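Q: I have 248 residues here and want to know how they pack in 3D. Can you give me a structure?
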Amino acid sequence: MTRPRTATTVFLLGLLAMACTSTAAVPSGPAASPSPSATPAPSASPATSVDSPAAAAALVLGSDPRFAGIGPLLPDVIGQSAWYESFATAEGFEVTVRIGWGDCPAGCINHHDWRFGVARNGDLSLIDETGDPLPDDLPEVDVTGDGVIDIVLVAGPTCPVETVPPQPGCEGRSVAGATVIVRDAQGIEVGRAITDSEGRAHVTLPAGIYTLEPQPLEGLMGTPEAVAVWALASGGLPVTLAYDTGIR
């Protein structure tokens, strides 16, 4: 014969069911300190995709210590001994890295090139490696401590007819109040900088490779493309990025 359940029995069974279905809280670790920057960055999840040539270049440059300190190709600069180029392809992106040596003010007698494919999910693959054998005495770049990235934003043209070099009074004008987002090699936002009245800003970050993403600004038609740059304790040249005024 089955005894009828009392109110106490039902209450105890309910407590047991709640205990079996509850989930223990996982203690969280200590909160991470925000990366030093001009403005504290919002929290972000790890990037799951590569969405720009600059982001692809940052992944490649951060993959090999020999690439430390290498910046984008500057076609108008004579004697640039090391550079990278990055562009989109049907499969993702292609990044070329060059290291040159030997009378580089005259164009570098020797050079060594790497060509990488970067998938949109962040996978890297070496397409080919060509050129002269690398010398044993390549200078090493210190990628420790904190580094500073100096940013200069300008807008041009400022005259209907653009010449190289610019005519007097037709130089690019400073862009004040523009926001630049800074991301690490994984695409995570680590800081923001806002340019001052002279179009300048700087961020201090742990030494490494980062991507600068200037944001659209009202009154200017063209926004500069993102660029991969290094923050190094030894410093470096300011990174100048140009907005398009639309004046033609």
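Q: Anything worth noting?
A: Helices lie at 7-21, 53-61. Residues 7-21 form the longest helix (15 residues).
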